[in-house]
Structures are given as C-alpha cells and as structure tokens.
Amino acid sequence: MQLTPLHLQGGRDLSGEIAVQPSKNAALPIIVASLLSSEPVTLHGVPRLSDVYTILDLAQHIGTRHAWVGPNSLTLHTPEILNTDAPYALVSKMRASFIILGAILARAGQATVSMPGGCAWGPRPVDQHVKALRALGAEISEDGGNFGAVRHGHLSGTFVFEMLTVGGTHNAVLASVLGGGVVTLENASIDTDVVDLVNFLNTLGARIEGAGTNTLTIHGVAALRGGEYTVIPDRIEAGTFMIAAAATRSRLTLTNVRPDHLRAITAKLTEMGVDILEAGDRLIVDARDRELKPVNVTTQSFPGFPTDVQPQMSALLATVPGTSVIQDPVYPDRLTHVAELQRMGANITVSGYTQVIQGGKLHAAPVKAADLRAGAALFIAAMTTEGETVIDGVQYLNRGYERLAERLRSIGANAWQPQPMLASAMD
Ligand SMILES: CC(=O)N[C@H]1[C@@H](OP(=O)(O)OP(=O)(O)OC[C@H]2O[C@@H](n3ccc(=O)[nH]c3=O)[C@H](O)[C@@H]2O)O[C@H](CO)[C@@H](O)[C@@H]1O
Ligand SMILES: C=C(OP(=O)(O)O)C(=O)O
C-alpha cells in the first residue's frame, strides 16, 4: 500500500503522558539471537515497527516460525535451520540484519549474508565484524556483494575492537555463544542494546560475563534452552519525545523509560534550561515559559550523546536563539535533515561533521525525510511552526516510531496521515 505523507499543524503545546515504545535497536538483535535456540522463546516488549516485520521475514527464511501472542509479545521458534543465506532483498532494507551472519554461523556452522543496508546517510563499514570473526577462527570470504562465513569447530580466542561498535559487538557475541570455546572481546561496546542482548542470551543459558563493561568473556555452551524475556524501553524514542517537549516549550510526562539510559540527553536539555525530573520509570520534561540557551553537542558511543538523536537536536537548536554547534563524529555524513530543516527556515551551516546553528523561528514547508531520524527532526520542527507541514518519506518514520500520528495526537499535537484513496473510491 502506498504511504501518504504525515501532516502536522504546528503551534500547539504538548501535554499529558506518553508511554515510550519498547526498543527497536534492542529488539532486533534479540529476535535474531532467538534463532540460536531450537526451543521456543517468548519476547515481551517488541515494538510493532516495519523493521521488526523485516527481521521476522528474514528469520522466517532462516527457519524461525513466529506468532504474535499479545500487542507487543511474540513467540519465536527455530527447530532447525532451513537456509543459511540471508538474501539481498531482505538484508538491504535494514542495517541491523547483518548480525544474522554471526547467529547463523554459530547455529549452522556456515552462513552467507549480503552486505548490509539501512538508513542511507553515508558509509557504514563492517570491517570490525569481519576482523572479529576471523580473529576468533572463522573463515570469511567476500564475493559479489556477499559475505560467506564458515567455522571448523568452535570459535575461540581474543579480539580487540579498534573502536566501540554496537553492531560489531553483537555479531561477535552471537557467533561465539555456542560451542566449547572461550572468547574474549576487548574494547567491546557497553551500549544498552549490547547489555540487553547479553541478558537475553544468559536467560537462555548462555555464559557471557562482563555486560556493560568493555571486556566480554563468552564461555561457549552446547545449546541454549527456550525462555521468556522483556526488551528494554526505547531510549531513542524517549529522547525524541524529550526533545519534542523542549522544542514546543511544553511539559510532557514519559512513562516506560529507563532514566539511566537517558542521562546524556537529560544533561544537555538541563544545560539548556529544561527541567527534567526522574521518578522511577517516568520522566517529566518541563520547558514551559523557558528561554532556552544554545549549547554545543558532540555525539559519542553510549553513555555519550547518541548519534540517533543528533538530527532531532538540530531541529530543537534551530528554534533556540543564539549559536549552537553540533558535531557527529560517529556518523559524519548523517546530515540529510539539514537541507530539509533549511527549507523550514533553519539557519544551519555545515562543515564536515559540524553544524553551526543560529537559532530562530521556523516556518511550515513541504519536506521529505530521507532517513528515520531525519524524519523525527522534521516532525519536531513542524510542531514548532504556526502552519501546516507535510512530511513525505513516512516509510522511514515507520521503521522507528509506532503509530506515530495517533500517539502524537494523544499528547496534543495536531498530526494526521490521510488514508490513501482506494481505486474504487476514485472511479
Ligand atoms: C556507537 C554508536 O553510536 N552506535 C550506533 C550505531 O550502531 P551501528 O551498529 O550501526 O554502528 P556502530 O556502533 O557499529 O558504529 C560506531 C562507529 O564505528 C564505525 N565502525 C563500525 C563498525 C565497523 O565494522 N567499522 C567501523 O568503522 C562506524 O562507522 C561508526 O563510526 O547506529 C545504531 C543505529 O543508528 C545506533 O543504535 C547505535 O547506537
Ligand atoms: C538508523 C537507525 O537504524 P539502522 O542502524 O538500522 O539504520 C536508527 O535506529 O536510528
């Protein structure tokens, strides 16, 4: 079905409560990891997003049967591996799918996976994934856009990542869980999504030590059992709504949050003059009647300021009088939102991965999201204007935000997505 654009009539304050969805970037690797067990696995807290449907299609090709057993609960069962390849048509849709290489390799001893896709903002290398698997004893070949992996016996040994990589750590962990070897990963990512993957695998009987530190030790086990697990809340969605509240100078309560996953965003918004109160799994963001101050932001690996929230921060700072500077060395080309924000009147100058932003007032304009978080920046910007903004590229927003228009309306935004006209209705 063709997706119609998202319409947003700005100029309204946000208010009330919004429940943050479960984490996309934690759920996707956990769904992949479920195929390491031949027994059924039940997951709670799986967001209903197009990326989740894509990874389920890929898992089904590998041999995973699934059934939704609740609004956000899913059972997965992979009694046997039917195919050891991950085809281009599925892998090219989404970056996270590349970690299926490690999972199939662990369970089946060999795998062929197409080079990854995902949001198109520039190069997203996988050299560390390949180096790690090779260092641990896998044979990796590259041919015609595919990576082939074979292992003879179990993986073992030590690998030191050259930089903190979330995906690279996922892939190496998944590849090492089964078998009799001991694997040590140094300079491993301490990202929340890595910790959640390790906690899930340990629930199924894996023996992985060190989650949340830079050294992971994986003692291979003969097999994983089934089990039940709840995925963490989505810190990127939470960050997006925190920034939306600040940009509209509103008061918003977020529920289903892990405040400890949001400290870098909380610190930056507090520095700007926003009041943020942490109360258990709730966060109250209050920017009413505030004269926000410009700030400088540099993205980093967790626990630093996330690259996935950088475009949304550009939209906010474009509304704050004064000069702000944003730098995104994690993904230096993640800038597709800039030209679209400029169409809405934003004063942003780009040099390399640095944005210099002179804040002011934005106006409505027709705009197009070219990737997921660029789309988030655009709906935040649209909410600060007086007019109606039409945002095209909704398929990207659907990758990362559940029932967006409906949920934005529930907190006071005037957002809607017209239904496409059926052919018969147009006759
Ligand atoms: C550290 C970081 O913020 N990671 C984010 C990144 O994860 P994702 O797994 O996509 O990216 P990585 O964490 O692997 O990348 C971190 C950095 O390492 C570099 N790199 C990575 C792998 C590799 O083999 N070689 C290499 O050079 C990347 O270019 C990047 O500069 O995007 C995801 C989706 O947007 C986010 O949820 C993650 O939080
Ligand atoms: C860009 C994202 O996802 P991916 O890495 O799958 O492209 C994201 O979650 O912001």
Automatic annotation (TrEMBL):
Keywords: Cell cycle, Cell division, Cell shape, Cell wall biogenesis/degradation, Cytoplasm, Peptidoglycan synthesis, Pyruvate, Transferase. Its EC number is 2.5.1.7. Pfam families: EPSP_synthase (PF00275). The active site is at C119. The keyword Transmembrane does not apply. Residues 9-408 form the Enolpyruvate transferase domain. UDP-N-acetyl-alpha-D-glucosamine binds at R95, R124, P125, V126, D127, Q128, D308, V330. The modification 2-(S-cysteinyl)pyruvic acid O-phosphothioketal is found at C119. It is found in: Cytoplasm. It catalyses: phosphoenolpyruvate + UDP-N-acetyl-alpha-D-glucosamine = UDP-N-acetyl-3-O-(1-carboxyvinyl)-alpha-D-glucosamine + phosphate. GO terms for molecular function: UDP-N-acetylglucosamine 1-carboxyvinyltransferase activity. GO terms for biological process: cell division; cell wall organization; peptidoglycan biosynthetic process; regulation of cell shape; UDP-N-acetylgalactosamine biosynthetic process. Phosphoenolpyruvate binds at K24, N25. Pathway: Cell wall biogenesis; peptidoglycan biosynthesis. Cell wall formation. Adds enolpyruvyl to UDP-N-acetylglucosamine. Belongs to the EPSP synthase family. MurA subfamily. This is UDP-N-acetylglucosamine 1-carboxyvinyltransferase. It comes from Deinococcus budaensis. The gene is murA.
